[in-house]
Amino acid sequence: DLALYRAKTGGKGQLSLFEPGLEIAVRTRRDLEADLKLAIAAGELELHYQPLVGLGDGRVHSFEALLRWNRRQRGFVSPADFVPVAEAAGLITTIGRWVLLQACSEAARWPSDISVAVNISPTQFRNSDLVDDVKAALVTSGLDPARLEVEITESVFFEMNAVTIANLRELRALGIRIALDDFGTGYSSLSYLIRFPVDKIKIDRSFIKDMGHRHECLAVIETILALARKLSITVTAEGVETVEQALLLQRSRCDDIQGFLFSPARPSAEIDRLVETLPHKFRSLLNPEEPVA
Ligand code: C2E
Ligand code: MG
Ligand code: MG
Ligand code: MG
């Protein structure tokens, strides 16, 4: 291809704007951004909910809200692909506001002992409007703040400033729980856990994936669990796919597991069915002696 040839040879090895591949990538991203801007109004965004299953008794106490985008004429787009685009394009605050209201409104219709966990992006967390958005979602939906948990990543702690500290304090003062998501993958510093108390740690899937065949992974998981117990922090393991992983985590006294072994994220209409059936699935897979009450 002539344009590409010129760009590569004439540009002293630099990437040139004339490179067709790059041009397509830029256009694709611009299209994605434009479609994302219209997605909320077009009703293309949805939340699905993945259960957290208690390793003590197999009961479900909460669900994590996960964004799903059915992009017009193109089908399903992964949040791993569009959430970063939304961040970069300054759309995440608007989308995040919709997520909060939608998650609280749907959870308000669930059994009253079931909570919902909402992912909050670092950009949202740095914004001084966050607490107002959360309050508005709670008031509009009527959801008890004790049934809302927010998931933030370690990068939030890395960039702690007056606004983020105030957000963290105010959310906790409202009775909302804070979970540290993808724990172990960021700029993990144990000092964060002392300076900024959290209610829950979610151990990243990368550790769970290899825990059965890499003793280093199991060692890290067991150490996180021992530390969390001393600090009275609850621990969830992410991405549990096998019975072997679940049994190892149960033996290490992890509190909850989340993963395809029990269920992927499902629409809100399926919450009652999942709450009802998962304790039975738990008993048959992990075989504890006690029957489900
Ligand atoms: P996350 O918060 O760590 O969510 C867990 C991800 O792991 C979800 O991917 C979930 O579907 C996936 N997962 C759960 N169990 C398993 C398993 O057993 N095996 C494997 N391979 N994967 C599993 P999903 O839904 O594609 O979301 C990806 C990421 O996108 C999330 O990671 C979160 O960082 C972000 N995200 C999703 N929804 C939102 C949202 O409403 N707001 C923001 N800011 N970010 C969101
Ligand atoms: Mg999460
Ligand atoms: Mg996570
Ligand atoms: Mg993760």
Explain what the structure shows.
By secondary structure, the chain is of the alpha/beta class. The chain contains 13 helices and nine strands. The chain has helices spanning 2-10, 20-39, 79-88, 92-107, 122-125, 130-141, 154-158, 162-173, 190-195, 205-210, 215-230, 243-251, 271-286, and strands at residues 45-54, 60-71, 75-77, 115-119, 148-153, 177-183, 200-203, 234-237, 256-257. An eight-stranded mixed barrel has the order 1-2-4-5-6-7-8-9, surrounded by five helices. Helix 4 runs parallel beside helix 6 (130-141). Residues 1-13 have low confidence and may be disordered.
Strand order of the largest sheet: 1-2-4-5-6-7-8-9
- Could you say which overall geometry the principal axes of the C-alpha atoms support? globular
Number of strands: 9
Estimate the helix proportion, in percent: 40-55%
- What's the mean pLDDT score? 90
Structural class: alpha/beta
Protein name: Diguanylate cyclase
Domain EAL: 29-279
Organism: Methylobacterium iners
